[in-house]
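User: quick one, sequence for these tokens?
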């Protein structure tokens, strides 16, 4: 802010997907508590987000069963032997839970879990123009001393290089099991929170998002309804939305996988535009008026 004073006071939003369900709220929380000079934080938006371990896991297996990806017997074994509670999130699964989970994984072996309706494409043409060294370029760049200095990274001078998936940190056991208390604190400080979910993702599916948000036990401000990708004519149903008191919205995106913009860019644009402006997503009444 001192280096770029022209940005002081501007509204600031943070968005992300998947494990950003943890680090976006955590970053917002750090800004809220420690930012100096003050950053005008207004909202966060997290997509197909890892929020709460036990409901995320429960919702994933519920999604598999309700979308006919696993058998009744496998689903029953998971629900009987796996502990989807706060206490269970910190404990090692039982052998019977492992067995049932392995059965589910075997059923999904030939399915793209990040978009369960995606074709299983094995065409060799996809790799004709693929550069297999892309990851190495990124790692080489982020390990350059001048880049790390500019990013204020590796200030403790670690003796091993940065990598996307490090083999050095193999015993990471202090990951937060839930960010629900952080989300609740953000809401108390008038920070807008949108949780959106592509409804064909099986990795962190919409069922997980719904179960996690329901843990907050928030009063409904505007009931579940469809939203539309356009107000011009008969816009397509883009998904569904429910709004809660405290400025939290749960939004689904129809036909989108784990990374919503890559599957449904039009709906994603409408989603982001309305999040930033604080406006309600288009409904069918608006469509009829145009």
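Assistant:
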């Amino acid at each position: 802010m001192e280096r770029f004073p022209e940005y002081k006071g501007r509204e600031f939003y943070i968005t992300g997907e998947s494990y950003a369900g943890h680090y976006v709220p955590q970053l917002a929380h750090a800004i809220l508590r420690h930012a100096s000079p003050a950053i005008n934080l207004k909202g966060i938006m997290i997509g197909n987000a890892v929020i709460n371990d036990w409901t995320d896991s429960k919702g994933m297996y519920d999604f598999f069963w309700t979308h006919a990806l696993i058998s009744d017997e496998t689903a029953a074994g998971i629900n009987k032997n796996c502990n989807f509670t706060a206490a269970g999130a910190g404990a090692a699964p039982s052998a019977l839970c492992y067995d049932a989970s392995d059965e589910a994984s075997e059923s999904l072996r030939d399915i793209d879990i990040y978009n369960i309706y995606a074709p299983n494409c094995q065409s060799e043409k996809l790799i004709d123009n693929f550069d297999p060294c892309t990851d190495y370029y990124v790692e080489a760049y982020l390990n350059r001393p001048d880049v790390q200095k500019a990013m204020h990274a590796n200030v403790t001078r670690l003796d091993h290089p940065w990598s996307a998936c490090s083999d050095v940190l193999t015993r990471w056991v202090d990951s937060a099991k839930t960010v629900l208390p952080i989300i609740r604190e953000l809401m108390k400080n008038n920070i807008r929170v949108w949780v959106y979910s592509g409804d064909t993702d099986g990795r962190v599916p919409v069922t997980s998002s719904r179960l996690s948000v329901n843990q907050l036990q928030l009063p409904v401000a505007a009931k579940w309804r469809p939203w539309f990708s356009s107000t011009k004519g008969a816009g397509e149903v883009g998904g569904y939305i429910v709004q809660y008191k405290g400025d939290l919205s749960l939004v689904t995106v129809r036909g989108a996988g784990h990374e919503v913009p890559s599957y449904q860019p039009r709906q994603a644009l409408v989603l982001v535009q309305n999040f930033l402006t604080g406006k309600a997503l288009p409904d069918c009444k608006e469509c009829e008026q145009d």
